[in-house]
Amino acid sequence: MPWAWHFRISKSLSSSLQKSLDRLNQPNIALYQISSFANTFGRLEWFADALADVHQCGLVKAVGLCNANTAECKAIVNHLKSRGVPLATNQVEYSLVRRYPEVSKLMQECAILGVRITAFSPLAMGRLTGKYSISNPPPEYLRFGKQPIAEIQKILDRLEGISKANNKTIVQNALNYVIAKGATPVVGIRTPEHVLENVGALGWKLSTAEIAALDGVSLQGSMNHSWQHS
Fold first, then answer.
1. In the Cβ-directed half-sphere of 176, how many Cα atoms lie within 13 Å?
2. pLDDT band at 77 (very low <50, low <70, confident <90, very high)
3. Residues contacting residue 44 through CB under 8 Å, at least 6 positions apart
4. Can you list the pairs that 185-188 forms with residues at least 24 positions away whose Cβ atoms lie under 8 Å?
5. CA angle 84, 86, 90 (to 5 degrees)
6. Whole-number Å distance between alpha carbons of 27 and 123
7. End-to-end CA distance of the chain
8. Residue 211 in contact with residue 173, Cβ under 8 Å?
9. Average of pLDDT values for 123-148?
10. Cβ atoms within 10 A of the Cβ of 77, count?
11. How far is the C-alpha of 2 from the C-alpha of 9, rounded, in Å?
12. Which of 114, 116, 87 is nearest to 101 (CA)?
């Protein structure tokens, strides 16, 4: 977010958002999420008020957070409620390679609060597509899902076995797993083939046994105190 937000949060957010809408030639946007709000000089209620302001003046239809932990979510949900504005989403990194938001109970708490979890990097930056393996490791610069390839290989082997049994691809099974856990995967798409494959993750469900089998080889991952609190 612009540095000015740290001091004049509501005014800076509104001004920056309006300039973006002007460039896009749009009256409003469907969902506006803020990130990296915790390591600033601002208090959480200031960010909540800034979100409520742009929602109530019609610049956005819904508001959300990124990488917020349970305490941060609860604080902002409660303050937004006093303004008559719901918190729609909390976007976190979640996949078979990083189940920390689930293990930490964040996802369960967000469900109680009525906040939808959206999962970025649900395929761990390509590590869960079958493209990489121990013999063909992913590039070091791939930031998210950076777990030992030997551990990821166990997940890929399990996904491959399930894929052969249910006639779905590794990607489709990995995405369906995220959906089964109550999250909405945010997937990067570069080709028409990607679109078709990703859509194939919808309209069916992994069995309870298949989910348990994937749980057994999944990785918890971790968090950091600078920006990824969830």
1. 24
2. very high
3. 37, 38, 72, 75, 76, 79
4. 185/118, 185/119, 185/122, 186/91, 186/118, 186/119, 186/120, 186/122, 187/122, 187/123
5. 155
6. 33
7. 19
8. no
9. 82
10. 20
11. 9
12. 116
The Cα–Cα gap between 123 and 66 comes to 18
Cα separation, 85 vs 71, whole angstroms? 18
Say which amino acid occupies 76. Answer: I
- Angstrom CA distances, 154 to 28, 135, 211, stand at 45, 13, 15
pLDDT tens digits, one per residue of 20-57: 999 999 999 999 998 866 555 558 888 899 999 999 99
Confidence of residue 177 (pLDDT cuts 50, 70, 90): very high
In total, the chain counts a number of residues equal to: 230
Return d(Cα 220, Cα 17) in angstroms, integer: 36
pLDDT at position 138 over 90: no
Q: What is the CA radius of gyration of the chain?
A: 19
Sign of the C-alpha dihedral, residues 77, 82, 84, 85? negative
CA distance 34 to 73: 12
Q: For residue 13, what are the contacts with CB-CB under 8 A and spacing of at least 6?
A: 1, 5, 34, 50, 51, 53, 54
Q: What is the DSSP string of 144-168?
A: TT---HHHHHHHHHHHHHHHHHHT-
Residues in Cβ contact with 105 at an 8 Å cutoff, skipping those fewer than 6 apart: 70
Type of residue at 116 = R
